[in-house]
Prior knowledge:
The chain contains ten helices and 23 strands. By secondary structure, the chain is α/β, with parallel strands linked by helices. Helix 1 (14-26) links the parallel strand 1 (4-10) and strand 2 (32-35). It is globular, with a radius of gyration of 22 Å.
Amino acid sequence: MKTHYQVLIIGAGTGGIMTAAQLRRKDKKISMAIMDPSETHAYQPAWTLVGAGVYDYKKTIRKQAPLIPQGVDWIRDFAESFDPENNTVNTRSSGSITYDYLVVSPGIQMNPGDLPGLKEALDQGDVCSNYTDPEHTWEVLKRFKGGNAVFTQPTTPIKCGGAPQKIMYLAEEYFRKQGIRDKTNVVFATPGSVIFGVPEFAKTLNKIIIERDIIFKAYYAPDHIDAENKIIYFHYSEPGENACVVTEDNKLNERLEGSTKIAMPYDMLHIAPPQSAPDFVRYSPLAYADGPNKGWLEVDVNSLQHKRYANVFGMGDSAALPTAKTGAAIRKQAPVVTGNILHLIKHSKLSDKQKYEGYSSCPLVTGYSKMVLAEFKYNNVRDSDPILSKIVDTTKEQWSMWVLKKYGLPYLYWNQMMKGRM
């Protein structure tokens, strides 16, 4: 087995495969390897639809081997640690692999153990998560008969930040179709202050919440779960004293414990587990050692080059980038990494033309056959496709966007993105 490559890529997810495919298309002479132990590859954006019973989970999973670009070696092993001073990645069982250029794109790690009670409750009974087992989410929805349907998200960054509310909108419509909506409280509890960060799209979502009688709980940070008694506890996180109030019209049967702790009963609970960069990244020399980005990959937000190691690039969910962690973001990041590596190889400097401006997209499914396509860049600035925006108002619910989500995007993913064609 080879132990040195011009380009070594960590992770055979969206970022790793796209970058490898694009590099091969541009220069077939580059010696390259992808390091990833997984035998399968998941199209996770469709898990929202799996959880709502309108997409087959099996269609989201494919074998990894055919996706590895021809001419790229596949190191089926775990990266254990980085030694960037010596251009080395240490593996679990394949020894040390050295590189000229390193691309770090291993995705994100679920940490259910960081929320007390979640590890024992997750994907059991009435506690579900599209992040871990969307088929269980569908089972929970089908057997739900009314009560508090609670949808939450953690205080950590998460992949596809809109996912927790997407399944909520679908569930709310499903309850209406089943004739149980009038005896159901649909709750969205978030540590944040708004339903969505980009004003143009938040306006539409706020209108939906009001029209569909969804209970929005801002500053509700999950604290712990008592699965035996079916109670989730929140820490009220709004700054200031005496800000937490449980009102007299308390149809959720919430109760206040102390000054900032709230206990909320649930009959079904959908939760996004706390998340982080994988351990081998967050405890490595490549991650921020302190500050608000502690544990996330340290890269320049425009060039995606590591700030301290010029031959290292990072992208995808594990990178400390102030934008949403989505496949759409990676679609714009991969060409920047590819272009900059090729420019470094040929000219020993970065390309002036390759800059990432924070583009991301969140296909916000708001019901069965409706979707809002939220596209934005750094600083929560709307960044909708200029051609598409002339044809359809993507800030509003559209049937055409639902068709794009269910049929168009999976096709583009497997046949274009994975081939390095976009």
